């Protein structure tokens, strides 16, 4: 039996690598992009469809296709940085529409079919920052933590039907996302120096990060596990840092996270 997988944000980065990996495993893959016609190097065999997660009508338009989806990879998202007190409300609202509300609605649309067929996998692609929060990344951290919250609670509801929700948290990834990150900081901000220091370290860590292919391999591992674990983390020395978090005080973990980004906390 050929399973159908839908991967959001499949035109580049983790989404593209995941679409390719699932194709190699024999899945029928539907990949979403805001502009499928502008994809210059599509993955062979992937059916690309248009989806704008910021537009509720676009999300609802996926309902028919999602009814036949066995595997949903909620990967598409945006990155955002800025001092908490200076984040524009409209920017935070957009971030949550794209990163959280769109993924949640796609999941809601896919679940009835999965439940009826007795099989389903929903993967929320989060971020290790949800487990190790970082200054000036509060809105992004909150959006990824929200995804994990929906997955952790929802899996308890759906697992009796053979449907499993899982979060994959990548650490630093070399996908060029730093070039697309939105930044909000006032010209006279008292946080300016620290903010720029954090961004420089974040960009450095991402340039030295793991490949999208490694994250895709972890996503496929989660999809094919029976049952999958609640959380998979990959990159940024994940086994070490998650182990460390279990045995040292939270305040020390917080300090280490910020020192990795050159912030003296």
TrEMBL record:
GO cellular component assignments: membrane
Keywords, in A-Z order: Oxidoreductase
Record-level Gene Ontology MF annotations: oxidoreductase activity
Entries under Pfam families matching the protein: adh_short
Domain spans labelled Ketoreductase: 3-171
SUPFAM superfamilies in the record: NAD(P)-binding Rossmann-fold domains
Homology family: Belongs to the short-chain dehydrogenases/reductases (SDR) family.
Name by which UniProt lists this protein: Short-chain dehydrogenase/reductase
Organism annotation: Winogradskya consettensis
